[in-house]
Each structure stands twice: as structure tokens, then as C-alpha cells.
Write a structure and sequence with these properties.
Helices cover 40% and strands 18% of the residues. By secondary structure, the chain is of the alpha/beta class. The protein folds into 2 domains: 195 residues, Rossmann fold (3-Layer(aba) Sandwich); 98 residues, UDP-galactose 4-epimerase, domain 1 (Alpha-Beta Complex).
Length: 306
């Protein structure tokens, strides 16, 4: 039984990851400041006593020292986790994502943890010069969120080189699945269910949506075996944002309309992951990245996805 720390474990991806780790019979501790996290993401595990939840902040280095005792593997997910939130509060995204990541790395190295898995983002590439984007593409973040992830990656690399901490970096594309909120797919599923307009900022965006289960497969593989280098986790298929809106309306048989509103300049408009490295590790995404929309739509309609 390995002792595992999941920072940000009460969030969207963290909740799914904890489900898998508990299923695999690990000893799991979650550290989350509950800014976006919800105890309900861990509900059954908390009730069964399978998971310990520490409500606290990764900016608190002293707390981290205590939480890290006896931990072998760290999944570091805690972060200010979206672009617009980081623009609204650049200081929080810096202190949580850059300084907080430094704190987690230092506590892990000091405690003699064997491995740390870091959830970076496709936002580190900024507006890509070509698609699909491979891992050697220059890092040219265009917003404070991307910059904070570039900083986190740089510290992760240096902790691997200088302090012998095995670090695995995953650059996640747009993840979707049950339990998410305030991102394009859950916002539009809600709007479609209520018959409200789906607001499309700009409309020219082409993005890479990847199903949560693929991401959890990649995270757990990285935690168990490590990674040879930073690895994109995406579907490898570009989806136009207008196509996404149409599919959501169609799948939900919704009377919603698409409303075009001005683009938000800080957001990356074009990303498709080169998935060669990910596939070489045995992680295969779905051929249709939106294949799970019908199941998710049903879950939203039944009120179980929120
Ligand atoms: N969801 C995506 O599409 C996506 C894409 C790329 C990268 N990521 C990264 O994956 C990770 C998980 O994302 P998510 O979608 O689950 O986001 P989320 O916001 O649902 O989860 C992040 C969790 O971290 C917690 N947290 C935030 N700041 C903290 C702090 N200072 N101390 C302790 N806890 C803190 C929040 O309360 C939340 O529960 C994040 O690092 C995010 O940047 C997500």
C-alpha cells in the first residue's frame, strides 16, 4: 500500500484521480484549500474512511512539511486552474501555481518522496506556431496562467536535476468529464439543458478536448512508472468551438441558439496536441474526442454531473 498525496484532490480531475487510487487500494491523503474543491467530490471515500482530507493551502510551507511525512508519490494538481481566473487574480495564480508548486516540490524532496507528478497545461505553448503541437514547441505562454505553469515546470525540472526527485510533467489539453464546472463544456451543457443561448467568444477557436478517463490513465501511469519527458495529454484531434456548440445543442435536442460575442484576447485560439509521445506510452485517446457528450448530457439532465 503506497502512501499518496494528491494536492487539489477535491477538484474536478483530483476527484476522479482519487477514485482510481482508492480503487487500486492506495493510502490517499488530499490537501486542498477548497477554493474550488468540494468535499462531495470525495464523498463516499471520506465516509468510508479511505481518504484523509486536509483543508489547507500549498502556499503554507510548514503545513506541507507535516502533510508530506511518509508520502511516496505526490500528484500535484492544486492550482488556480483556468485562464480567465488567472487574469482576474494574477497574484493568486502566481502564488499558488509558481510559489505553491515550489513549496510542494521542496517538501516532497525534503521528505524523501520518490516521485512527483505535475499537471501542467497546453497553455505553456501559448499561441502555437504549428499544429499538432509537439513537446519541443517553444514555451511562449500568452497569459498569467500559462506563465505560472511554465514556472512550475521549470522548478520541477530543477528539482529532478538537483535534488533527485523523480518528476513527471503532463501537459493537459482541455479535459472534460463528470463533475467539472465553469468551463466551456459544463457551462454549455447547463445552458443547453435550460434552453439558454450558448455564448461563443470569437468563434474561430480550434481546441483539443480529451476525456477524463484518458487523463486518469495517463496520470496513474506517470505516478507508477514515471515519464521520459514532458508529455502532451490530448486527443490529437482539433474541434472547432462552433462544432462543439452545435454538437451540444444536437445531442441535448435543445432549443438553444448560438450567440457570437467578442473574442477574449488572452485565450489561446488554436491547439491540437501531437500525441506521439503519449501513444508510445500506451495511452490511446478516443478517435472521436466528443464521444462522451451524450452520456454527459444525460448526467446533466439527471442532475448527477454537477
Ligand atoms: N481541467 C482542465 O482542462 C485542465 C487543463 C490543463 C491543466 N489542468 C491542470 O490540472 C489540475 C487540476 O485541474 P482541475 O480541472 O481539476 O481544476 P480544479 O479547479 O477543479 O481543481 C484544482 C483544485 O486545487 C485547489 N486549490 C487551488 N489553489 C490551491 C491552493 N493554493 N492550495 C491548495 N489547494 C488549492 C482547488 O480548491 C481545487 O479543488 C490543475 O493544476 C490545472 O491547472 C487542468
Amino acid at each position: 500500500m503506497t502512501r499518496i498525496l494528491v494536492t487539489g484532490g477535491a477538484g474536478f480531475i483530483g476527484g476522479h484521480l482519487v477514485d482510481r487510487l482508492v480503487r487500486d487500494r492506495h493510502d490517499v491523503i488530499v490537501l486542498d484549500n477548497m477554493r474550488r474543491g468540494r468535499a462531495s467530490a470525495l464523498g463516499q471515500h471520506l465516509r468510508a474512511g479511505d481518504v484523509e482530507l486536509v483543508e489547507g493551502d500549498i502556499r503554507d510551507a510548514e503545513l506541507l512539511t507535516g502533510v508530506m511525512r511518509g508520502v511516496e508519490t505526490v500528484y500535484h494538481l492544486a492550482a488556480q486552474s483556468n485562464v480567465m481566473g488567472a487574469i482576474d487574480d494574477a497574484e493568486y495564480s502566481f502564488t499558488s501555481n509558481a510559489l505553491g508548486t515550489f513549496n510542494v516540490l521542496r517538501a516532497a524532496a525534503d521528505a524523501g518522496a520518490a516521485r512527483l507528478v505535475f499537471t501542467s497545461s497546453r497553455e505553456v505553448y501559448g499561441e502555437s506556431g504549428y499544429v499538432p503541437v509537439d513537446e519541443d514547441h517553444p514555451l511562449a505562454a500568452k497569459n498569467p496562467y500559462g506563465a505560472s505553469k511554465v514556472a512550475g515546470e521549470a522548478y520541477a525540472r530543477t528539482f529532478a536535476h538537483c535534488y533527485g526527485l523523480d518528476v513527471a510533467v503532463l501537459r493537459l489539453a482541455n479535459v472534460y468529464g463528470h463533475g467539472d464546472r465553469d468551463r466551456v463544456i459544463p457551462l454549455w451543457l447547463d445552458a443547453a439543458a435550460a434552453g439558454r443561448d450558448l455564448n461563443v467568444y470569437g468563434g474561430g477557436q480550434v481546441l483539443d478536448f480529451v476525456w477524463i478517463a484518458t487523463v486518469i490513465d495517463a496520470l496513474t501511469l506517470a505516478g507508477e512508472e514515471g515519464l521520459p519527458g514532458p508529455t502532451n495529454i490530448g486527443s490529437g484531434v482539433g474541434t472547432s468551438i462552433l462544432e462543439l456548440a452545435r454538437r451540444i445543442i444536437e445531442v441535448g435536442s435543445s432549443r438553444s441558439q448560438i450567440a457570437r460575442v467578442p473574442a477574449r484576447g488572452a485565450e489561446v485560439t488554436r491547439f491540437v496536441a501531437d500525441t506521439t509521445r503519449m501513444r508510445a506510452l500506451g495511452i490511446e485517446p478516443e478517435s472521436d474526442p466528443l464521444a462522451h457528450l451524450p452520456a454527459l448530457t444525460e448526467a446533466y439532465a439527471a442532475g448527477v454531473a454537477v
